[in-house]
Amino acid sequence: MNKGIRYSTVIDVGCSDGNFFLHLSAIGLFPGAVPLNIDANNLYEGSLQAIKGAVGGDYRISAITDHEGEVELTTSVHPYWSSLRPENDSYWLRVNKLISTKRLVPATTLDTLRQQLALIPPYLIKLDIQGAEQAALRGATKVLKDTHVVICEVDVDDFHGINNILEQNDFALYDVTHVSRLEDGTLGWFYPVYINRALDHVRPKEFWKPAHNEAQINNQVQRRESILKENAVIIARIQGQKILAPKTTETKVSTKSVGRNSPCPCGSGIKYKYCCGAYR
């Protein structure tokens, strides 16, 4: 998103190989901004060094949480699924316990990095840290005050907690992107986009522009007409089924002699083939 919003620093937490900034800056979405790529897994350091050499900015190999020190990183059979959440956490149940190893990694906060690196605001923050987003946000209260946009990868089970923290820090939900569904079709994870309420002017205040009122009214008129026609057909079929249903006290009415293009004997006024005949 741009909407006239500009960022001086793009902070990508859980950046893995750092492609977020590269891809979007390549299409001109981050003019003048520099990246700070952060990931707890040193597997990605070579890629992040290459990005720093090409586009500037900086990187850190560290976990981002709400305190300084060390934390345990539980790695998965694929590094993209690694998480700070412990082995018995529901996160690992949802990825079928695909756990590889555990090790201690350095930990810091975004507020600390802001001071150490003299990060220039305003910021855009992207979080993709496999369930550790709430802790990262708790350690970023100062950074969030100078942040324009926050984008998270969110498991549906974690959404309410993340949403509450961001609302408490004066952010409003702006959009939802990259909706991913589970094998049964239910919601799995997605990317909500939040903007600082200080930028509320970029949010549309109406569902459509006043100049489009007539078109929207016509759309609703046509939609209602379509619904009523569909309802009439369904009601006629239901009534036809009742009429043609066998009754123990009455002689069964034969419909074998009814032509498919003849009026349906149920009295609906619709051709037999589109009404009760559709079920034969």
Query: Please, how many helices?
Result: 8
The global form is elongated
Q: Looking at this structure, what is the CATH superfamily of the largest domain? A: Vaccinia Virus protein VP39
CATH architecture of the largest domain: 3-Layer(aba) Sandwich
**What is the fold named in CATH at topology level of the largest domain?**
Rossmann fold
Q: Please tell me the overall pLDDT.
A: 90
Number of domains as seen in the coordinates: 2
Structural class: alpha/beta
Q: What about the largest sheet?
A: 8 strands, mixed
Order of helices and strands: EHEHEEEHEHEHHEEHEEH
β-strand number: 11
Low-confidence stretches: none
Rg for CA atoms: 29 Å
Percent of residues in beta strands: 15-25%
The top-level CATH class of the largest domain is: Alpha Beta
The first-to-last residue Cα distance is 54 Å
Helical fraction equals 25-40%
Compact summary:
The protein is α/β, with parallel strands linked by helices. The protein contains eight helices and eleven strands.
